[in-house]
Please model this.
Amino acid sequence: MGEHAVVLCLQDTTELDFNGQRARGLGPLSYEAQRGMYLHPTDAVTPACEPLGVLDAWMWAREKKDASGRRGGPKESLRWLEGYERLAELAPHLPGTRLVYVADREADMMPLMKRARDLETPVDWLVRAAHNRCLPDGDKLFIQTCSGEATGRIEFAMPARHGVKGRTVRQRLWARRVELPAAKGSTVSVTCVVAREVDAPPASNPSNGAC
Model:
């Protein structure tokens, strides 16, 4: 990793399905009848998609729901915070490498943003937005970010997948530095980036996103 100027540290969760196998210590998966474990790794890759290795892995088996429908065990959202903390511990050993924590919508949560702020953000983080958050002035995050002219445009090829033809996607980009409300009157300073597709073909699903 020290040989690269930038390393992307990708996090997500996958299911290890051992349904039908005789093994102890398993728990329910997406469906209560499934048996297996969850694995949440942090994979290091270069911006050119060259895999460098696995940095961390959170593995657990869910407990069954009780009579009230509640599930015991540790709070599963902790995996996103711990993933960032492990990278923050690694950052001082790689002073010449920019580490970027990358996660999907499930990581769009204030405790993660506050933890990065409190650690003085030794590792950059890029999280796909799930919430159109309220801002201190009462405006909405996506509306304020997209006010004014677009910052730029990008174009990329979307590959074909089951039942959907491949096509070229053209998006407008907006970026703005904003303050997000945090606990006890404090805020977290972030850069919001919004990408919106233009001229999408009829009957297609427009490719839009925010982070």
